[in-house]
Write a structure and sequence with these properties.
21% of the residues lie in helices and 24% in strands. The chain has 3 helices and 7 strands, in the order E-E-E-E-E-H-H-E-E-H. The N terminus is likely disordered.
């Protein structure tokens, strides 16, 4: 399944094999599309272009760098700016994956794309997760297990 990330912030899902793409030239200096691919065991988000400025896969969770700071400053002047949560996307992903007891995202820098892979990989075996749950709860249902 492919998902098209619209501008700004809309997402459309289609079961077709043809990839959906979004023309968001203001997001990246590369004139290409952001592609979100959904698989049975993972989600991949492919952004065109390389990481901006000093950003690397090692500092992506701690540093920020705007590709176009003029647009960021302009949007920030609105009473309810659409970019108010800028820089919080990966933090939200990390928190959600941790809460779901999944391994964190994998960051891949390719020749002309940055890819985030959100794998559905548990941190522990199912038996360990059930035992941990039972340490804090008296019983467990099949649905929770």
């Amino acid at each position: 399944m492919r998902v098209r990330a619209g501008c700004p912030g809309t997402v459309r899902v289609s079961p077709s094999a043809r990839p959906f793409r979004s023309r968001c030239s203001w997001i990246s200096p590369v004139s290409d599309d952001i592609l979100i691919s959904i698989f049975d065991n993972r989600v991949e988000v492919r952004s065109p272009g390389r990481l901006p400025g000093h950003m690397t896969t090692e500092n992506i969770l701690t540093d920020r760098f705007a590709r176009n700071p003029s647009i960021v400053r302009l949007l920030d002047k609105y009473p309810d700016p659409p970019n108010k949560d800028i820089g919080e996307g990966l933090d939200t992903v990390m928190s959600a994956m941790k809460a779901a007891k999944l391994k964190g995202p994998q960051f891949v820098v390719e020749d002309n794309a940055f890819v985030v892979i959100l794998a559905h990989t548990p941190l522990a075996r199912p038996e360990e997760l059930i035992l941990e749950y039972l340490r804090n709860n008296a019983e467990i249902s099949n649905k929770i297990a």
